[in-house]
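Researcher: Final request for today, and then I'll write up notes for the group meeting. The sequence and the SMILES for adenosine-5'-diphosphate follow.
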Amino acid sequence: MSMADPASPASPANPASPASPASPASPASPAQKLLEVRDLRKAFGGGDGATEALRGVSFDCYGGEFLGIMGASGSGKTTLLNCVATTLRPTSGTVLLQGTDISAFSNAQLSDYRGSRIGYLFQGYELLDSLTGSENIILPLAIHNEQATVISSRLSELAAFFEIEDVLEKFPAQMSGGQKQRVAAARALIGRPDIVLTDEPTGALDTRSARTLMEKLALLNEQERTTILLVTHDANAASFCSRILFIQDGVIFHELRRQAPGEERADYYQRILAVMTHLNGGSANVL
Ligand SMILES: Nc1ncnc2c1ncn2[C@@H]1O[C@H](COP(=O)(O)OP(=O)(O)O)[C@@H](O)[C@H]1O
Ligand SMILES: [Mg+2]
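Model: Predicted protein-adenosine-5'-diphosphate complex:
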């Protein structure tokens, strides 16, 4: 099934609006800028040994987008995502979430941001071994003192969506890699975050599990308009994104957009490979 590009900033603003019954100002209008990254720079170390991991990265992520950042190993993807997640402080530049500079957050705002406004899905699952699947998933809500009925209905909804009902009572050691990652995805989503940040979520998965995970994320984006920012070196994973920014040596140098409506994913994948091949002297270098 083709994926529309609901968040495309280039799409006309609500073409059917004059005749349609007026809805109150929607909190998630299609072209709302959720994230604005401006001239982000990050240097590690100092003097001669300094590494400039980010050298002035600027982009916007719109509400409802499935935005990919693609680049070879060492290009600065993880550094970028960690700056957005506030687990790493940039050397300079700003990240605005709905117009507010996240570096200016108070401690309370920062804890709300990390705890409820972003969901994080890691390459290595990061599940707690001593907790069952469902306990892992609801942990973020339990910490926030959410009502039991709310927790249980959201848990059932996500468990059905990610097809992990049969591992909810199992421990991570009893799950396959794909199941662990879908449990981790449910955990990232349980608090209905404004944006899901994910770093190489398919990196530890076999091809089939990787595909299942990406299909689920794409469906979630399409059906619930969940905003996702994914960084990856994997063209296959990137081909599920509605738009892809390419990063090399800490700088964004190219953008591809899945042609809406209906560009086949296989064709989009070929266009992604062409960019990587052209700029890296061969897709084999994209590791
Ligand atoms: N904590 C760190 N200390 C020093 N250098 C780092 C650190 N983290 C990343 N780097 C360097 O920054 C560059 C970008 O790294 P990273 O963001 O991890 O790239 P990617 O995720 O695209 O593989 C690399 O040259 C890497 O070696
Ligand atoms: Mg990385």
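Model: The longest strand covers residues 33-44. The CA atoms of residues 140 and 146 lie 9 Å apart.
Researcher: Thanks, that's everything.
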